[in-house]
Every structure is written in structure tokens, then in C-alpha cells.
User: Fold this.
Amino acid sequence: MPAGITGRSIRVALAAGIATAHLSATGEWKLLSSGGAATLVRGKGQGVWRIERRGDQLRVINAAGTMAATRDGPFVARPSEPGAFVTWEGKRYRGELVILPSHDTTGLLVLDRLGVEDYLRGVVPSELGDVTELEVAALEAQAVAARSYAYVRLDDPDAAARPYDLLASVTDQLYGGVDAETRWGDAAILATTGQVLRYAGLVVSAPYHSSCGGSTAAPTEVWHTTDAPPYLRGVSDKIPGTDHYYCEGSAHFRWTQTYTGSQLRATLERYLPQYTLLHGMTVGRVRGVLADPPTASGRASGVTIVTDRGRYDVRGNDVRFVFRTPDGAVLHSTYFFLESTLGATGEVASLTLHGAGNGHGVGMCQWGAIGRARAGQDYRMILATYYPGTTVAPID
Assistant:
């Protein structure tokens, strides 16, 4: 186990395919080559070193360009005094940074290798945001869900073929390193140390999203899958005895997205070919946009786009990536109904989506968890609600 890493370690991919990486530290540190076999740099955190790729090797250059060395990778940046952090592009990270050539490009892959509990310190606040003491139960629920997700990825049999365990983005879990850590996030992780979600004795992948808009969804409603584990099913977020919902605090509890005719056509021209057989062709004039029958939770099961070139079906969560906003952002959710108007030529002149929620809708609703915490529910109750049939138990 590398120095400074306690418990089981995890490899988080911070960036891939980049041309250069700038490293330093907040105190004394070392840069090692050949995966840690030889020392290249002994620094005090007073300068920044640049890493580049030279064929299958890596090259390190100081800020003045007066010192350089080319060696076999991976390079390992490791703090050498208590309380110091290594930095990449000015951001602080726990554990150690590993830099190696990307397998499929001429660039670099940058990893943070650290203990799982330290990793969670940079995940939980990044995912849930800055909450108050009254909402710590939501942070605790987030910590258990994120820890479960991480351990499932660590034990993924396909992980052996990758140099990393998961990504630092929403593809897996948002990870911000030391700069993302918060007082209450740390407290939530400490209070739930080593706790994961289990179903039938097994650690489960615990997906979550920002806001369900009123009801969560089963995986079969949004993803291309027929596999719907019993603990992932639609759950109402309505507050009993009221017309209100626990996730009403979300800025996207209700939303509207409108496209002019030209914006709609431009959006479809750019993104529709990635999800249909429209390769090498233009969309043409958009004659209609039709929502398919809703799913059990009320989400659009898909959208049919009718143009003068043909009909194109987009299913489930793919809808969010085809109907991006004019600035390129992914559509908030598939929980919407649509209205369209036609122009004099029969082409769609405007399209408006009236929606609810933010994210795929499966698993824990983060804003719902915050609302439930405010209402006095503890993290075990929150998790039992969004992942019915699971239990909270130690990882070991």
C-alpha cells in the first residue's frame, strides 16, 4: 500500500488524452518514474513541473525549461511530509497522482490513487452540494450510496482491463478532490464509515440523480435494459397528506424548454445521427415531434420525429441527449409533455417541452433526500425509501 493511503485504494481517472499535465504540491513531495522505482524530482511545492509524452515514455520539465528528463512511466507524484497534498493543474488531491500514456491516444492519462473513504470526501459534496446541519442525513445517505457504487466498480471483472476504476465525472461520480471537501460532508462520511447498501447479501450499485420531479423511475423506463433489480423501482416523492413533494426545493422541479423551428432543426441535425440510422444524411424539414406513451412513472418512453426524409425513433434516456438545449446542455429529464406549432409550410415552427425533475430518475432523488432530511428522516430511512428492500451493512 503506497504511503498515505489507508484502507482499500481506488484509481480515479481525472483526465485522459491530454497533451500535458502540470504537477506540484503544497509541501515536500517526490516525482517517481517507472511506477515508483526511481526518484526524478524532490520538490517543496514552490514550482510547477510539466509532464509530456515522448513516444512510449514520459518527459518531465521544470518551469524554467532548464531541467528535463525522459523516463519510462508511469510517473507517480507523492507527498513526502504529513499534511501535504500533490496538485494537478493547481487542484489539490489526496493520495498520489499517477501519470501514464493513454492507451488509445498520443496523450496522457492522469489518475488519483487514494483510499476509498478519502475519495468519498471529494465526491459527496460534489454530488449533493453545500447543505446545512439540518440536512446532514441526506449527506449520509449520499455517502452510503456513493460508497456502494464505488465498491461495485472496484469489484467489476472488467476493471482489470482498465488502468482506472472509475471516472471523476458524472459518467461515474463527480469527484473534486480536496478543494471540494466540506465540514458536513466529512462528518457524513465519518458517521457512515464502511457502510454500503446490500440486497440479498450483495453490495448493490446505487444510482442517484438530482431531482425526480415527483416520482423516481425503474431502469427499464429510461435505459436500454430489461434488467430491473427489485430495489430499483418507481417511488413516489409526494409528502403524505399534502399536494407537495420532498424534492420541490430543486430549481428544476418544474421546467420549460422551448425551441424555435430553426433551433429544433439545428439541434436534430447535430445530435440525432448519433442515436439513429441517419448517418450521412440531413434531417430535412421537421414535420412533427410526437411523444410515445408514458412509462409507469409518467416519463416519455420515447419520441418520434417526423421529417420529409422519414420517421426517426429515439428511446428512453437517449431523448435527453438528442433534444439538447440550444447551448448544448443535456435536457433535464424525460419527465415531460410536449406542445408544438406548425408554420404555413407544415414545418414545426416551435416546440415546447414542459418538464419535471433533473437527471435519469433512477434510484435516490438527491433533492428528495434533502427534503426528507429536513422533515426529520434519518439516512437509513431515506435509503430504504429510494432503494426498497436493501439494508445498510458494513463492507467487510
